[in-house]
Amino acid sequence: MVGPMVQSGDEDAGGPSWLKPLLRTVFFVPCKIHVDSSKSECNMYCLDCMEESLCSYCLSLHKDHRVVQIRRSSYHNVIRVSEVAKFIDISCVQTYVINSAKIVFLNGRPQPRPGKGVTNTCEICCRSLLDSFRFCSLGCKLGGMETDPALTFNLRPKPGRDSLYGLESDTSSSPRKLRKTSSAFSRRIEVPISHLEDDATATSRSISPGTPPIVSYRTSKRKGTPHRAPF
């Protein structure tokens, strides 16, 4: 049964409204509605309905909803970065590559005894991490938000080219640029009409066709009439 569509775009202190239900949902179990059908394993979740997991046959009832697919790695639920990053900010969460796709884990995987030489661990479950990350899963980041108010799942707007270089947008700067250009151009061409008429007359006189110059060509050495010797 499909529940009412919930507007889950806003975020409170605990992240988007669908995140906690997603992390608590049980996946990879037979669908209760399509239990007799083949491939009825539930590995989908609707972010708008925020109910139980869905199978592929349930998708026909969620055509206009935001549905994500959950996968498994080492018996743990994961989701592809390309899917979840459209809805939340996953910064500070370590990503992994499985089957040539980047994924993040949904929930923590406690590791009380990190390996030797490990210098960075998850702030919640102590799993070994690369130095550039703070959490091993979405659930651990959610737990870290309780003590660090700077953490957020809200997506930040991507900076435009103009803001990267400290420039104004084209819509705000173009009219001003045009006014400056036109005013500067008008100052350069302001000439009294009388002067223009005099210049036009002088120009017409100077460019009137005249007698072309005569060019003579002389050779450096010219032979004269040959003289014959007397008989």
3D structure, described in words:
This protein has a domain at 18-146. The protein has helices spanning 19-24, 81-84, 138-144, 161-164, 170-189, 193-206, and strands at 11-12, 15-16, 44-46, 67-69, 71-73, 76-80, 96-98, 101-105. A hairpin with a 2-residue loop joins β1 and β2 (15-16). The longest helix is centred in the C-terminal third of the chain and has 20 residues, at 170-189. The protein has 231 residues and is α+β, with helices and mostly antiparallel strands. It is built from 6 helices and 8 strands. The strands form 3 sheets. It has a 4-stranded antiparallel β-sheet with strand order 5-6-8-7.
Helices and strands, with pairings:
Layout: E1 11-12, E2 15-16, H1 19-24, E3 44-46, E4 67-69, E5 71-73, E6 76-80, H2 81-84, E7 96-98, E8 101-105, H3 138-144, H4 161-164, H5 170-189, H6 193-206
Antiparallel strand pairs: 1-2, 3-4, 5-6, 6-8, 7-8
Would you tell me the overall average pLDDT? 76
Unreliable runs: 4-10, 163-197, 200-208
For the largest sheet, list the strands in their spatial order.
5-6-8-7
* Individual helix count: 6
What Rg do the Cα atoms give? 40 Å
Shape: globular
Distance between the termini: 140 Å
Work out the helicity level. 10-25%
- Order of SSEs, N→C? EEHEEEEHEEHHHH
**How many strands, which pairing sense, and closed or not: the largest β-sheet?**
4 strands, antiparallel
Q: What's the count of strands?
A: 8
Report the structural category: alpha+beta
The proportion of strand residues reads: 5-15%
Pfam family, one: PLATZ
Protein name: (wild Malaysian banana) hypothetical protein
